[in-house]
Design a protein that fits this description.
Layout lengths: L1 E3 L21 E4 L2 E4 L8 E5 L20 E4 L6 E5 L5 E3 L10 E10 L5 E6 L9 E4 L13 E6 L4 E5 L10 E8 L2 E6 L2 E7 L11 E3 L9 E10 L5 H7 L11 E8 L1 H6 L5 E3 L2 H14 L18 H7 L6 E7 L4
Antiparallel strand pairs: 1-13, 2-3, 4-17, 5-6, 6-17, 7-16, 8-13, 8-17, 9-10, 9-16, 10-11, 11-12, 13-14, 14-15, 18-20, 19-20
């Protein structure tokens, strides 16, 4: 069972010590207290904050064997890992990594490559992929469009992959989360559910090291990476949302992308029980901001909005089965 969670900058590297108060059940990340009371701290089996010479601050003390350059940390506090696209870090294999359920990190893409690049991969040989996280290229020099995330695992069936519907944003910190549990992979971007895949067979584990920022077979992206963490317990939507804290954001557990390229009737049925097609007032209360941040506008600029009464004029647009847009579903407890 495996869960994956993925996690401006100035040119100044901070060497200041942590100033957080020591509270039970909390971690100090970038001089900010992070509430981790929802997860036992002994479940952390890998923690690289890149503020202490790339040491593993978890109970395993499995330090990076091939260090990388350092960059500014998230929020311009502390350090992050800097990857140029050609050099990568190596985290040696540990037997407990077979029990990894969650991997967490933040990424800050700096520029685009011509093809997909490796953010993270565990492998001893080129045919092993469990797990692998790739970043696909952006469409232009401004890092607009593209930027999709792909997750690959090796199974007894074949290598199986999940591609994101949305995308990460260039020159901005992005949080990524993949939950691989049993035969299902769920992908989250910035704490919001993005896509899901049902596997044909169980993932095959391997004895290889973790490669970060590239691997021996493929180049990596040009990016900063911060707060890489491994856990041996699964995270659900609630825990994932606690790892993502953007000031002033709408609660990201209250909406998700229902469908893209669907007509109005399909948009209504894309929302599961306890959810509904978002109304215009809900969409304009902050959800559009998240749609842009998560790359949903790459799919379309038009979104369906819920209407309780459809007059003759609206019917031309809403009831035409050939008219397609994207749909965002809101929780019935949105307000």
């Amino acid at each position: 069972m495996l869960n994956l969670i993925f996690i401006l900058v100035s040119g100044i590297h901070s060497e200041e010590p942590e100033v957080c108060y020591k509270l039970e059940g909390h971690l100090c990340v970038n001089n900010q207290i992070v509430d981790m009371t929802f997860v036992p701290l002994d479940s952390i089996i890998g923690l690289w904050r890149f503020d202490k010479n790339q040491m593993d601050d978890s109970q395993l003390l499995n330090h990076i064997s091939q260090p990388c350059e350092l960059g500014p940390g998230r929020g311009a506090v502390g350090n992050s890992a800097y990857y140029s696209g050609e050099q990568y870090s190596i985290i040696p294999h540990h037997d407990q990594y077979h029990e990894i359920v969650t991997i967490s990190m933040w990424i800050y893409p700096l520029s685009s490559q011509q093809s997909f690049t490796t953010i993270l991969r565990k492998a001893l040989k080129s045919t092993e992929y469990t797990p692998t996280i790739l970043l696909w290229p952006f469409h232009d020099e401004a890092n607009v469009g593209g930027g999709q995330i792909e997750v690959i695992v090796s199974t007894s069936y074949d290598k199986e992959n999940l591609r994101s519907k949305g995308s990460v944003t260039g020159r901005k910190w992005n949080h990524l989360a993949i939950v691989l549990q049993g035969l299902s992979i769920d992908l989250y971007i910035n704490g919001i559910h993005d896509n899901v895949l049902s596997l044909k067979a169980r993932p095959l584990k391997n004895e290889g090291p973790f490669y970060v920022g590239g691997d021996p077979w493929f180049n990596g992206p040009l990016l900063y990476l911060d707060d890489l963490t491994f856990y041996n317990i699964p995270f659900l939507q609630l825990e994932i949302s606690k790892l993502v804290n953007f000031p002033g954001q709408v609660n990201n557990r209250l909406f998700y992308l229902g469908c893209d390229g669907c007509n109005y009737h399909q948009s209504l049925s894309s929302c599961k029980q306890g959810w509904h097609l978002c109304s215009l007032s809900e969409l304009t209360s902050g959800i559009y901001m998240h749609a842009r941040q998560n790359g949903w506008l790459r799919l379309t600029k038009d979104f369906w909005s819920r209407v309780d009464e459809i007059d003759e004029e609206l019917a031309k647009n809403y009831l035409d089965p050939q008219k397609t847009k994207a749909a965002i579903c809101c929780s019935d407890s949105f307000y």
